[in-house]
Amino acid sequence: MVRTIKAGLAFTALAVAFLLQPPVHAEDNMKQDSMKQDDMKQDKMQDGKMMRDGKAKTLETGKFHGKVHVTSGRATVYQQADGKLVLRLTNFKTSNGPDVHVILVATMDAMDDANFLKDNVEKVELGKLKGNEGDQNYEIPVGTDLTKFWTVSIYCERFNANFGAAPLEKF
Amino acid sequence: MNTNTSSWLSRNKWILILMGIPILAGAWWTFRPEKLFIDQRVHEAAPAALSSEPEALYTGKLEGKLHQTSGRATIYKTADGKEYLRLSDFTTSNGPDVHVLLVRAEDQALDQEIVKGELDNVELGTLKGNQGDQNYDLPSSVDLNKYQAVAIYCERFHAIFGVAHMEKF
User: Fold this and answer.
1) Which of A133, A169, A171 sits opposite B41 (nearest CB)?
2) Residue B82 belongs to what domain range?
3) Per-domain boundaries in chain A
4) What is the ipTM of this complex?
């Protein structure tokens, strides 16, 4: 009898110990070539610019889709060391067209040929499309609320047509 | 009738041409049809502050298979040429003998939760933690054209906890 109780207790203790196993939490930092970073620090000092110590960060990324005007590539939002936000398009390709702009829109995604003007969608203008092919950067105005503007659109202002859109996701 | 029309046309030819030119010019300016054939290529460098950072090569979101798994898997290349996998915002269930593997994205075995038979993989190490950001060094010989998916894999039970199909960053 005592033996059974003991065995039962031991078993319960084991089960509790197993269940209470805390989740293992890892916290690796981004790797950095230490030499390189020293160089960078020196560069900064030589530039004589006061930079905030924060490193550049990748905040969001998403892939372009678009069939009416074939659009492909990736859109990524970076936060630079000085806090400025930059949108970068990579492996980017779309069709060339008149008066094409890069905008951020306050939607989760955008259909091909969506008309944001008619649909009264809030948008932030980032500038004219620099080229219909290749890697390119666009500054995001200070104070843009990225929790609201979730989609990058290649937008033809003249015809109010969305050439392609990239819904952004947290990186 | 026919002669009438042609004579009217010939009489007003110059007026029509003069009116037509601005219309054509306007239409050209609006539609810019030549742009369909002319590409404008740019190649800007990454934002300056990023150039010394490790470069992201591939990225993808983790999806749960046997256990709920979420987060992002990204393969980075450091300035000195070394490659590593980083899991960020990562959560999976804890378990025995869990490993991080690179697998072939098109592998049929990834459709199942329990792998029967061999899984073609590159071992990156035991899972450091079931939550949090973590890095795994890639063997220098690994062919990233072949292995473009990450699997969180329990070796003991051949169970796939989660998979991330990565795409070019």
Assistant:
1) A133
2) 53-168
3) 54-170
4) 0.70
